[in-house]
Design goal:
single chain, 633 residues, alpha/beta, 5-stranded parallel β-sheet, 5-stranded mixed β-sheet, 22 helices, globular
Length: 633
C-alpha cells in the first residue's frame, strides 16, 4: 500500500473532482473533505462547466448534460422547493425510475438543506404510505401518471404532505391541501424565486455541513417493516472512496457506465448519484427495456450489477451464439477449450504458460471480443456483482470470455462495499473477497459466526428508531446479520443469513442459501426456496425460468428431478432435498412475498404456498414408508 502524505482535507476540497489521484497517494490517508455533495456540484460547474456530468439515453443515443447545466438545474429546483416552503432538515421523497431528473432533484433537495428520501417506484400504495409517512416527507416528486395515482390514493392519510411534483404530466386527483406541480413548473418557480431572492441559494448552500444527512435509504423490509437508514455527506464520501479502490481509473479518466435500476436502491444511488460527483464516472441513464440498445450504444467501461443481470446477459449471448454461422460456432468451441485450460491454471494458482497464453489471446481477439461487442461489453475488462449470491458457473464463464467478474459485499447500512475481490485478477468463485486496504475499515465475526464490520462509511442510525439501531450495533461494530467463514488470508465466504437458518425437527441447523444458489445454477430454475424448518427433512419450492416454460410438464419434472438428484449426490444426508414442487404462480411484491428490492420474504412465501409445502411432506413421508415396506401388489 502506498502511504505518501496526502494533501490536507481543505486542500483536497479544492480539487475537482475531490478524489483526483487519491489512489496514487494511498486511500488510507484520505480524510473526508469539508464540502457537501451539493457544494461539490457547484465546484465542478465552476472549474469544468462544459465537461459531461451525465447522459440520458433517448432511444437512439446518449444525450449529455454538462456540469454547468447540472448546476443550473439544481439551483432552480432548490429555489422552487424553497418557494413551496421546504426548509433545511425537511424530508422530500422521490419515487421514479432512474433518470437525469432524479439526480438533479436529489441534489436540489440537498442544496436546500433538506433530505432526499428514496421510494421504490414499484412500491404499492400501502408501501408508499409507510415510507412517506414514516419519514414525514412534506413533498414527493414522482415519475408519471401511475406514480401520481399511487400517491393520490393515500395522500389524505399523510398529514405532513404538502406538495406533489411530477416529472411528466401534471398531478391530479390530490386533496385540495396538497399543491401539485410539474417539474418544469417547479424550475420556473425557482427562477422567479431566484430573481426575487438572489442571495438565497448561496445561503442555503453554505448552510450545509458534511455531518448532516445526505440520504435516507429504506431497507427492503425482508425481516419486518422497512427502516430508514441515515447516511451523511461524510459517510457517503467514504463509500465513494471504496468505489475508487475497486476502480482506480475513476479518479483520473472518464469511465462510462449505465444506470437502469431504481436510484432508491442504495447501490445504484451510490454509483449513479454520489460517486460521479467525486470521480470521473459518467453515467448514462436508461430504462430497463432500453438496456440492450444502450449497452451497444454506450459501450460502458464499468459494470456493477446484481447476479441475475449478469446471468441474463450471458443467456442472451449464448442464444445469439446458436444463430451464428457454423464456422464461428466451431471457432467458439475451440476457443472454449483454450479458455478452460487457462481458467484451470488460474484456479490452481499456476502461471499460464506462454504458449497457452498466446492461444488464449488469439481466442479473445477472434472469438470472445467479437461476441462481447455484439452485447456492448467489449470495453469491460473488470465487472462487479453484488446484492445477491453469484452462481460459480456464471462467474467462471464471464472470466473465460475475458471479463474479470468479481464479487463485492455491502449493505444499506454500509452504503458502499466493505468486502471485495480487489486484490487480484480473475479470482476463483466462492468468496466475496477481503476488507478494504485501509485499517479504519475492519471486519470480525461474533461467536455465532455473524459478520461484524466497522468503518467511517457506517450509517448514522435508523430514522426515528433508536431501538432498531441499538439492536444492530455492538459498540462501534455493525452486526450485518450474515453468517460467514473467514479464512487465514482474510477471504470471506458467505454462509447464509442468521435469520434464515432452518432448524429441522431433528435439531440440525442448516443455512438454505448455499443450497438455493446451487439449485439456481441450472437454466431451468429461476428461483428456489428450501423448506424444512421444524420438519424432519428438506424440500424445495421451485419457480422455473422462461426456458423451462417451453418444456412440457413431464420433461420439466424429469429435468428438475435429474438436477436435484445430481445435487443430492454432493450433499451430506441432512442437506439432501427429498421432494420438490413447482409453484403455480410467480412471487409477488403485492402478496408480501418479495420486497421492493426483489428480496424474498421467506416467511411470507411459506405462508402463501403452505398447501404445497404440506403436500410435499405428507407425500414424501408416504413414499418413504412405501420404500421401506416394499409391499407387493
Amino acid at each position: 500500500m502506498v502511504t505518501n502524505t496526502v494533501p490536507a482535507a481543505d486542500a483536497r476540497a479544492r480539487q475537482v473532482p475531490v478524489l483526483s489521484g487519491v489512489t496514487d497517494i494511498g486511500v488510507a490517508n484520505f480524510e473526508a473533505v469539508d464540502r457537501t455533495f451539493a457544494q461539490m456540484v457547484q465546484d465542478r460547474a465552476e472549474v469544468e462547466p462544459e465537461e459531461v456530468a451525465f447522459c440520458q439515453w433517448d432511444g437512439t443515443r446518449a444525450i449529455p448534460t454538462s456540469w454547468a447545466q447540472y448546476a443550473s438545474a439544481v439551483r432552480e429546483v432548490t429555489l422552487g422547493l424553497a418557494a413551496l416552503g421546504v426548509a433545511p432538515g425537511d424530508r422530500v421523497a422521490i419515487m421514479a425510475s432512474g433518470r437525469t431528473e432524479w439526480v438533479m432533484t436529489a441534489l436540489g433537495i440537498l442544496s436546500a438543506g433538506a433530505i432526499p428520501v428514496g421510494v421504490y417506484p414499484t412500491s404499492s400504495p400501502a408501501e408508499v404510505r409507510q415510507l412517506v409517512g414514516h419519514s414525514e416527507a412534506i413533498a414527493i416528486v414522482v415519475g408519471d401518471v401511475a406514480d401520481v395515482a399511487k400517491v393520490a390514493a393515500i395522500a389524505s392519510e399523510l398529514p405532513a404532505l404538502r406538495a406533489v411534483i411530477s416529472f411528466d404530466d401534471a398531478p391530479s386527483g390530490l386533496p385540495e391541501t396538497v399543491v401539485s406541480r410539474t417539474w418544469a413548473d417547479l424550475r420556473e418557480t425557482g427562477r422567479a424565486h431566484d430573481a426575487a431572492n438572489p442571495a438565497l441559494f448561496d445561503q442555503r448552500l453554505a448552510g450545509g455541513n458534511i455531518d448532516q444527512p445526505a440520504a435516507l435509504f429504506y431497507t427492503s423490509g425482508s425481516t419486518g417493516a422497512p427502516k430508514g437508514v441515515v447516511h451523511t455527506h461524510r459517510t457517503l464520501q467514504y463509500s465513494v472512496l471504496g468505489s475508487a479502490v475497486l476502480n482506480p481509473e475513476l479518479t483520473t479518466t472518464r469511465r462510462d457506465s449505465l444506470s437502469f435500476l431504481g436510484l432508491s436502491h442504495v447501490a445504484p444511488a451510490l454509483s449513479g448519484v454520489y460517486a460521479p460527483i467525486m470521480t470521473r464516472s459518467v453515467v448514462t441513464f436508461c430504462r430497463i427495456d432500453q438496456l440492450s440498445e444502450a449497452l451497444r450504444g454506450v459501450r460502458p467501461a464499468g459494470i456493477v450489477w446484481p447476479p441475475r443481470l449478469h446471468e441474463k446477459l450471458l443467456s442472451v449471448a449464448l442464444a445469439a451464439l446458436k444463430q451464428t454461422p457454423a464456422p464461428f460456432q466451431k471457432s467458439y468451441e475451440n476457443a472454449m477449450e483454450v479458455a478452460r485450460e487457462v481458467a484451470a491454471a488460474r484456479r490452481r494458482g499456476d502461471a499460464v504458460p506462454a504458449e497457452l497464453q498466446a492461444r488464449y489471446d488469439q481466442a479473445q481477439q477472434q472469438v470472445f471480443l467479437p461476441l462481447r461487442a455484439k452485447l456492448g461489453v467489449d470495453r469491460v475488462n473488470v465487472a462487479w456483482t453484488s446484492s445477491g449470491a453469484m452462481t460459480p458457473e456464471v462467474q467462471a464463464l464471464w472470466q473465460m470470455w475475458g471479463v474479470d467478474l468479481r464479487e463485492l459485499y455491502g449493505t444499506t447500512e454500509t452504503c458502499g462495499w466493505v468486502l471485495g475481490q480487489w486484490d487480484r485478477a480473475f479470482p476463483s468463485p466462492g468468496t466475496v473477497g477481503k476488507a478494504m486496504p485501509d485499517p479504519r475499515f475492519a471486519i470480525k465475526t461474533s461467536s455465532e459466526g455473524e459478520l461484524l464490520v466497522k468503518g467511517p462509511l457506517l450509517f448514522r442510525g435508523y430514522w426515528n428508531n433508536p431501538e432498531a439501531t441499538a439492536d444492530v450495533m455492538d459498540g462501534e461494530w455493525y452486526r450485518t446479520g450474515d453468517l460467514v467463514e473467514i479464512d487465514a488470508s482474510g477471504e470471506v465466504k458467505l454462509i447464509g443469513r442468521a435469520k434464515d437458518i432452518i432448524v429441522t425437527s431433528g435439531g440440525k441447523t442448516i443455512s438454505p442459501q448455499p443450497i438455493e444458489v446451487r439449485l439456481k445454477a441450472n437454466p431451468l430454475i429461476e428461483e428456489a426456496v428450501v423448506v424444512g424448518d421444524g420438519r424432519n427433512y428438506l424440500t424445495v419450492l421451485i419457480w422455473p425460468t422462461e426456458t423451462a416454460g417451453r418444456l412440457d410438464s413431464d420433461a420439466l419434472h424429469q429435468g428438475l428431478q435429474a438436477w436435484i438428484d445430481k445435487l443430492n449426490a454432493d450433499l451430506a444426508r441432512p442437506l439432501q432435498l427429498k421432494d420438490f414442487r413447482i409453484a403455480p404462480r410467480a412471487l409477488s411484491p403485492g402478496a408480501g412475498e418479495l420486497t421492493s428490492k426483489g428480496t424474498i420474504r421467506r416467511p411470507a412465501v411459506l405462508k402463501s404456498f403452505s398447501a404445497l409445502v404440506d403436500e410435499m411432506y405428507s407425500a414424501a413421508e408416504h413414499n418413504e414408508f412405501a420404500d421401506q415396506a416394499r409391499l407387493q401388489g
